Amino acid sequence: MNPSESDLGPAFGAAAAASRARAPEHADLDVLAAYRRGELPESDAEALREHLAGCRECGDLLLDLEAFEADAEAAAEGGAAADLEEAASWRAVRLRIDRPAGGDAGAGWHLPRAAAAALAAALIGAVGWGAYQRAELAAERSAPQPDLPVINLIREHTTRGVPPAPHAWQVPRGGRFLFSIIPDTPLAGARYRVVIESRDGVQVWSGELVGDDDGYLNLGFSRRLLPDRDYTVRLLPLDDGGEAETLPLRFSR
Amino acid sequence: MPGARPGGTTSLRRGEARRDVGGVADADLTAAIERLRRGERVEESARILHRRYYRPLRAYFLRKVASPEDALDLTQETFLRVYRGVESFRGGSSFNTWLFRIASNTHSKWREHRSRRAAQPAFPEPSRPVAAEPAAGGDDPLDHVLRRERHRQLADAIGELPDQQRRCMVLRLHHQRSYRQIAVLLGLSIETVKAHLFQGRKGLQQRIACAPETPQPAARGDDGDGETT
Question: Looking at beta carbons, which residues of chain B come within 8 Å of A56?
């Protein structure tokens, strides 16, 4: 007998199922990494090979890890354009990093424990560091960023009572930009759930943001996700004592 | 934020960077990770990690999601998670692996979130009566018995192949993996994979030829993804 294609499919499906039955345990990522480096004992490696013959999920994970590590080892390619892209991404990430000092220590980076005598000096240093960071952040905000414009959604446009007419923000076509949403009472470290909805109530984005040193909520966004139309930005405070706010938003080119 | 473990060490293990990658030397990267764990010179250290891992992370997410914007968002989200969780990196596993785990988890959560949103229909679909499934392969009981017998013989023949031949064939014919992917998964060279597949097909045909059965169309030769045996 020679098998037809309609026979081969079920037969190899059954063979894959048999491999899964012989080695049913999914592999942890550290095990897959050790296997890739040739550091697993042969008996464990043999069991893993059997599992990989039957498990697409673990196979995909190992292939992803292999490709990632190969990319991480490869010399950087892409030239100046790729460098600019990396720099733009860093600016967006930097604005979302919790500040080490002068900010909310519980939410981000820790201050090293110091002796009581050193604490005062550390405090002075922290104040200086915070001032330096604010100055640097302000300089960055005021610097021209043609590929990453900043939109300051300020409180004059928030709704208290009668909603004001939304200001129409003009942003470049197809680019990414940064929101700096400024709550009515900006507080460093204040936590908000931010919900962006279209005017017909469809949620476009939702996430948790923490106020930066100035109490601004910074959010990198792709222009493509927000076509030209009206939106509502809702700020829902996650800390006690905060007050929900609604901000109208309109984009135009 | 809890303090850093004084006894903890950060090392890049075998297989990690041994040269200047992305403008970041290996030693600089190790030092940056250690400083991040201690909460020292955070921005400078975070910048070094970003420069070093931006491209591989972005490439990973571009492979996983269709939209470049989503890939960029996921890349940036991964960096934030790395910075916030770097103190949990114990140095026991490779930093590449540790960082990749965060990227993989970030992608999984994003995918779950997307599928939850996609699973919410605007209007609930009316329930439909479930029709009885027709018996596979038609109604003829004799056909059904013959098909089951062929499947059993094939399954037996596949099970009798040497392990690596069998795995290569399952990965190729069931999972539709490329030769290179099979080589990575089984830790073989591509040439060895091709040899296993050739021998596996040959062995399978020999085993099946011994079975008393009416002739059938020949098994397909190559799998048609541009690679040749």
Answer: 175
